[in-house]
Amino acid sequence: MASEKKIVPMKGRAWKFGDNVPTDSIVPTAVVQGTMEVILPHVLADLKPEFAKGVKQGDIMVAGHHFGQSSGRGVASKAIAASGIVCIVADSFARTFLRNSYEVGLPLLECPGASELAKDGDIVYLDLVKGVARNETTGVELKARPVAPFLLTMLEAGGIIPLVKKTGPDLGTGGA
After folding, report:
1. Backbone angles phi and psi of 152, in degrees to 5
2. Pair type for strands 60-63 and 108-110
3. Residue 60 has what DSSP assignment?
């Protein structure tokens, strides 16, 4: 079971991606059924070959519109999280990718203008609660949509399965 974590602002090195990144490019079909050990060297390899070897724990992904579109393969969110990325900030996300990410405990921040926030290697600061995305390298700050309280609760639990184990199937609502 994932351990509970407090949602705090985060700061990390940026990896920039463009618009309409499909889950098929995040985890290629040839490795989608493999173990995470097999998948990780191929994460985003078609779009940025240096990503898998260069990404470090605590890095942040910056992207454009409709990140995670297409097939909706759930392993894409898991692979990004396993690579070391602690959050993705993007102009927008495909809805299925958004749900899959929160369910596995990977935070996302929707932020108009995110695609222009940073370039590879810039240091990015994100506050999920206040809805702030800031490039610490350039000083550019954007207002993002704060993450909904229920999604913050899910992230604090480590994802949907740890949350259900903690609260029961009614997610602590008492069945209401």
Report:
1. -60, -40
2. unpaired
3. E
Residue 131 buriedness (CB in 10 A; 0-12 / 13-18 / 19+): middle
- Cβ 87 vs Cβ 107: under 8 Å: yes
- Token pair recorded at residue 34: 């493999």
Dihedral angle sign, alpha carbons of residues 75, 79, 82, 88? negative
Contact 43, 79 (CB under 8 A): yes
Q: What is the pLDDT of residues 48-57, one digit of tens each?
A: 999 999 999 9
Question: Three-state SS for 10?
Answer: strand
Q: What Å distances lie between residue 176 and 1, 165, 169, 172, CA to CA?
A: 26, 18, 12, 9
> Strand locations in 17-77, DSSP E?
60-63
What's the whole-model pTM score? 0.92
Tokens describing residue 119:
């370039």
Q: How far apart are CA 98 and CA 101, in angstroms?
A: 5
